[in-house]
Amino acid sequence: MIYFMFATGIENSYPTIQGGRVRMDEMEKCRHYDLWRKDFDLVRELGIEYLRYGPPLHNTWLGPDRYDWGFADETYAELRRRDITPITDLCHFGVPDWIGNFQNPDFPGQFARYARAFALRYPWVQLYTPINEMYITALFSAKYGWWNEQMTTDTAFVTALKHIVKANVLAMRAILAVRADAIFIQSESSEYFHAENPAAIRPAEILNAVRFLSLDLNYGHQVSSEMYEYLLDHGMTRAEYHFFLNETRKHHCIMGNDYYVTNEHLVHPDGRTEASGEIFGYSVITTQYYNRYGLPIMHTETNFNQGPGGDEAVRWLRKEWANVLRVRNDGLPIVGFTWYSLTDQVDWDSALRENNGHVNPLGLYDLDRNIRPVGAAYKELIAQWRDVLPTQSVVLSLPIFPPSQQQEPVLRRVENNARERENRYRAAPSDPASSKGT
User: Fold this and answer.
1) In the beta sheet, which residues pair with residue 45?
2) pLDDT of 397 over the 60 cut
3) How many domains does the chain have?
4) Three-class SS of residue 128?
5) Residue 272 is part of which domain span?
6) Which has the minimum average pLDDT: 129-143, 181-195, 412-426?
């Protein structure tokens, strides 16, 4: 049985900028390395039981099969002691220096080995986001030229995307070999592109197809003929495409949809885009993604600037929660909500592409660990709704257990059943209707 998951996150971004000379380590900027025990106190203070969290990859993964688990051992032991369920984020916008960037074809296989090593070391961890926001990672690194490889071509974008999604797929496979009842929450940006005028309809249609590519590949969903040509024209091979169709672990997944006020875009006739602000909103766009993939849903990220009036973030929280309830009342299987993140962020206003040291008041707490109005509002919301939702939120066939129950004998039975279920799924003939194109 799965109950509604109220969550927050501790940002562990670490992309490189300035040609790889500067690493934007949000855990360092937000002082989590020094204050992690206090941060875990705050999670519990809010009444939150689920935390999007992961060790800093660039400091943990030192080389092929070489790891420094020191910080992860401390933090994960404390999460377990406090009975906080981690949704483990293994890769967040960057890679270690020795990998280079997402153009490296060795990344997928090497990352799968890292994922397996993590699962073996922390076998009580059940929930994973192997690679956070695969679409955004590829877009910002290889199409916009902001992070990591800082490239700006369609070929670089497709190369990054296929390596990132393959790494995610192989990581899921590696983790399931260790923990057969693992569940994967794909935290992915949910986007929409609005045409400015009739002349912009065509470029908007293309962008609205590209936005799905990461999840199409990850879930083995056949892309449209136009997107198939786009992928092959820019470096993907037929064999690589069919790998994704054949290797889906969709039945172990929750589709995480991230939504911010910047997720909707206005498209001009020449293909240029700009932020449109909220037009459709979370419920409309998430329904589009659900209709495409048919998976359980989790609202995995949102936040808003506290604003000059001090209540703008609180009003955004209420709006997003109303959208969650709208999705649920429309009959979609939504299982969780996340305010991201626990504390304010640094340099989010430049999408981490400028090292300015700007503190952005987006968190439930400020960087001195004082609660913000939105933190108090979220705490109250959780207390009010926690006992209302659970009985109607049962949507997964695999149960989720908190760390305190991870050693119970029943878990071994659950894991054995999950392994048998996986074997049956692999042996069954594929259903063409489940992978229909657009």
Assistant:
1) none
2) no
3) 1
4) strand
5) 5-435
6) 412-426
Helix (H/G/I), strand (E/B), else coil: 10: coil
pLDDT for 396: 56
Question: Is the predicted pLDDT of residue 393 greater than 50, yes or no?
Answer: no
Q: How far is the C-alpha of 373 from the C-alpha of 17, rounded, in Å?
A: 33
Q: Tell me, what's the pLDDT at 422?
A: 64
List the structure tokens of 330: 């429309």
**Average pLDDT of span 168-182:** 96
User: Which among 367, 321, 359 is positioned nearest to 342, based on CA atoms?
Assistant: 367
- By residue count, the chain amounts to 438
CA–CA separation, 292 vs 224, rounded Å?
12
**CATH number of residue 69's parent domain:** 3.20.20.80
pLDDT digits (tens, 9 = 90+) for 334-387: 999 999 999 999 999 999 999 999 999 999 999 999 999 999 999 999 999 988
What residues does 8 pair with on adjacent strands? 51, 339
Contact indicator for 336, 294 with CB cutoff of 8 Å? no
C-alpha angle with apex 295: 249 to 377, nearest 5 degrees?
120
Could you tell me which of 256, 143, 121, 269 has the C-alpha nearest to residue 210? 143
AA letter at 203: P
